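Contributing new complexes? Match this layout with 4'-deoxy-4'-aminopyridoxal-5'-phosphate.
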Amino acid sequence: MTIQRPRSEQLYAEALEHIVGGVNSPSRSFKAVGGGAPVFMKRAQGAHFWDVDDNRYIDYLCAYGPIITGHAHPHITEAITRAAANGTLYGTPTELEITLARMLKEAIPSMDKVRFVNSGTEAVMTTIRVARAYTKRSKIIKFAGCYHGHSDLVLVAAGSGPSTLGIPDSAGVPVSIANEVITVPFNDLEALSVALETFGDDVAAVMVEPIVGNFGMVMPEPGFLEGLCRMTREAGALVIYDEVISAFRFHYGSAQTYSAFPDHAATRPDLTALGKIIGGGLPIGAYGGRKHVMEQVAPLGPAYQAGTMAGNPASISAGIACLEVLQQPGVYERMDAQAIELASALQGSADKHGIPLTINRIRGSFSAHFCDHPVTNYDEAQDTDGERFAEFFRLMLDQGICLAPSKYEAWFLTTAHTSEDIAATIAAAERAFAQMAR
Ligand code: PMP
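Output block (do not edit by hand):
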C-alpha cells in the first residue's frame, strides 16, 4: 500500500509562490532525493507525524535532532504553556536562565560561563568571534563535512590540501573570508599538523564536531580528539567543540563528557557551542567555556554579541523541561536498545538482499550509508550511493516511515518510540530492500 499525498502537492505548489523554494530551510526540500513535493505535516505526537492528507508516519527525522523526547511531550508542553501565560519575552533577565545555565554547566563542566542565543548558527558564529578576540588572531581550521550553521566563516569548503586556504561554499561568502579558513579531513591528525605548521601563528581556533552528526554519525578515531586538543594548544589556538547535535544526544552530558573519551582533561575544549536538544523543540543556542575566554564577551569584554530574543522564557522553560525528562533513569539505555535492534535488523535485511550498507551507530542514533566501505570521513561519506538512498527514502516514506531527505543525515530515536514502531520500521525496511533488490 502506497501513501498518497495530493494535499501536500497542492500546498507545495502554493508555497513555491510565496516562500523561496517552498521551504524555510533547504534541507527540507526533496532536491537530494529526486525532487517533488516535501510532505507537509500538520500534527505530531510522540514518535508520530500526521500529514495534511491524514497519513501517519513514524518519525526518525526528529527535526534534525532536537526532538529527543518525542513530539508534544506533556512535561515540555506544560512548561511552554506556563511560560506563554506569563508573557513570552521580557528583555530583562529571568531566574529561569540561571536554572538552565546551571544545568548545562553541571552536565558540561568545561563551561564556566554560558550565554544563550537563538540558534546553533549564532552559537558557533559567536564562539569564533570570542576565540578571535581572545587570541587576537584571525584564521580558523575546520574539518571537511562538519556543518556549523550558515554564517560566512563556516560555509567554506576545503582548498586542495591542508596547507591551502578555503574556497567559498556559498555564493555571497567573500573570498577574503574564505581566506581565513583552512579545511582538513576529519580523523586526520597529520593534515591538521600540516595546517598548523603552515598557518599556526595566525590560527585563532580549531573547530570540530567532536562526534560528527553531519556526514552521518562518525566517531573520532581513538586519539583524534586528544591529538587535536594537544596540537591546537601547542599552536596557541583555542579548541571549539560544536556540540549542537551531540550534546545530550548520547547521554546526559555532551561528547566531551562521554565515556568513550575517559581522559576528559585531554579532550576538554576551550569553548563549546550548543543548540537543538537544549531548547526542547523551541529556538535556542548557547555557547560557553573557560571563564577567562568568556570574559571577552560584552558587557565584560570587547567582543560584542547580543540578542532581542535570547534567553526568552519559552525556549528556556522548554529546555529545562526537556533536560528534566532526560535526567530520568533508563531513558538513554532504552533509546540505545531500540537503535541496536533497528540498526541490526536493517543491516541483516540489506545483507540478505545483497545491498551494500554500512551503519554507523552511536547509542540511540545512527546513519545508514549505501556503500561497502567504512565511513570515517567526509570523502567516504560522499562516496556512497545517493540514488539508492533516494529510492530507499521514498520506499520508506510511502510506507509511513519519515527519514531525513539526505544520505548524510542520521536516524534519531526518541524516548517516545515504542517496540511496535521499531517492528513496523523493520518490516517496512525489509519490503524496501526486497523491492530494491529486484
Ligand atoms: N552545528 C551543528 C553541528 C549542526 O548540526 C547545526 C544544524 N544542523 C548547526 C550547527 C546550526 O544550527 P541551527 O540550524 O540551529 O542554526
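Reviewers usually confirm one structural detail per submission. For this one: The first helix runs from residue 6 to 18.
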